[in-house]
Design goal:
The chain is α/β, with parallel strands linked by helices. Helix content is 33%, strand content 16%. The strands form two sheets. It has a seven-stranded parallel β-sheet, sandwiched between helices. Bound molecules: nicotinamide-adenine-dinucleotide. Nicotinamide-adenine-dinucleotide is lined by residues 79-80, 103-104, 107, 153-158, 175-178, 207-210, 213-214, 235-237, 261-262, 305, 307-308.
Length: 340
């Protein structure tokens, strides 16, 4: 009988490898487990894969899919799936499954870690005491109580942000394509349009998925509508913000600061990306340069797409990934975001 080849990419920790090997120890499987991300350059190594498990750093384009002729399912170890060309998958009859519910509180807690780091100048405070400097000059922050948070996207993560904001006695504005009116009865929250949310929020926090519709949701036109002195927080996807608009709003002091767990073209600035490819489009190159400016600004806090990364969440991600593959094998795939 032909073995089922499952390639698990972006797996770098021993405990993950052990759990995967235990789950698929039967001799009917051929397992490939690698810390590498899938790229056009290395895809040939995985050409006999029936199933593929990846994280967000593997960009699955039509060209990559073309080199995986046996592929039947891609399981992404993430909620977002904007790194996968869904229409190409559909055309080629490849299913795509995600992990829809691993980290709704996890990402919301990180969002508040960032908000508090901004509001109480935690990074500066710690850096200064490390240098033995204990004076308070320039370290005065602001209360969250009675401030208004504008939550963009009130799905799994956004609603936990709302819950936590309510605990801080913040006022809450929300914007979503599909408002959940039940939230208005649980919290002192008002759904408004994005145009109304931006001028009235002291903190704007983004929790919508990235797609064609949300590309540059915050851009050079509407960044001018943001309340002067407000803060922008993004733990969703970098492409929601037009980087040049963010940079100019910070320079002009329209925005007092920003906290970003995600950045546009973040793959290009991560440590292992090495040299910027010579054929990089001008827009992308500009974004990479602007990201470096953002990284050097004191009023900008950047974390390395780490919001999902709690002990509890990574365990949930792996167990759901394994279950996604098992259900596919049983012929009843779950958590499918794109069917064939
Ligand atoms: P979700 O699908 O439960 O919620 C998204 C919400 O956004 C939905 O209510 C939806 O109606 C709304 N929405 C969709 N398009 C919109 C638009 N054009 N305008 C306004 N609202 C819109 O997703 P979630 O679990 O809350 O996750 C949100 C995003 O967070 C994911 O798509 C992912 O990109 C990101 N995420 C980041 C991390 C991280 O580590 N930084 C981890 C998990 C998820």
């Amino acid at each position: 009988m032909k073995k089922i080849t499952i390639s698990f990419l972006e797996v770098s920790e021993g405990w993950q490898k052990k759990l995967i090997q235990e789950a698929f120890q039967n001799s009917q499987y051929k397992l490939i487990i690698s810390p590498n991300k899938l790229t056009a350059a290395n895809v040939a190594k995985y050409s006999d894969s029936d199933a593929l498990s990846v994280f967000i750093h593997s960009e699955i384009t039509d060209g990559v899919l073309q080199k995986l002729p046996q592929l039947k399912i891609i399981v992404t170890n993430s909620t977002g799936y904007d790194h996968i060309d869904l229409s190409a998958c559909k055309r080629r009859g490849v299913l795509v499954a995600n992990v829809p519910f691993y980290g709704e509180n996890t990402v919301a807690e990180h969002t508040f870690a960032l908000i508090l780091a901004l509001s109480r100048k935690i990074v500066d405070s710690v850096n200064r005491t490390r240098r033995g400097q204990f004076d308070l000059t320039g370290l005065r922050g602001f209360d969250l109580k009675n401030k208004t948070i504008g939550v963009v996207g009130t799905g799994h993560i956004g609603r936990h942000v709302i819950r936590i904001a309510h605990g801080f006695e913040m006022k809450i504005l929300a914007y979503d394509l599909f408002p959940d009116k039940s939230l208005e009865s649980h919290y002192p929250l008002k759904y408004v349009s994005l145009n109304q949310l931006l001028p009235h929020s002291d903190i704007v926090s983004l929790h919508a998925p990235y797609n064609k519709q949300t590309h540059h949701m915050i851009n050079s036109r509407n960044v001018r509508d943001i309340k002067p002195g407000a803060y922008l927080v993004n733990t969703s996807r970098g492409g929601l913000i037009e980087t040049s608009a963010l940079l100019s709003a910070l320079k002009s002091k329209r925005l007092a600061g920003a906290a970003l767990d995600v950045m546009e073209e973040e793959g290009m600035i991560s440590e292992d990306s090495g040299l910027i490819p010579g054929n990089l489009e001008r827009d992308k190159l500009n974004t990479v340069l602007e990201n470096h400016k953002l990284l050097s600004m004191d009023k900008v806090l950047v974390t390395p797409h780490n919001a999902f990364n709690s002990e509890e969440a990574v365990m949930r991600i792996l167990t759901t990934t394994i279950e996604n593959l098992r259900s596919w094998e049983r012929g009843k795939p779950v958590n499918i975001v794109s069917g064939s």
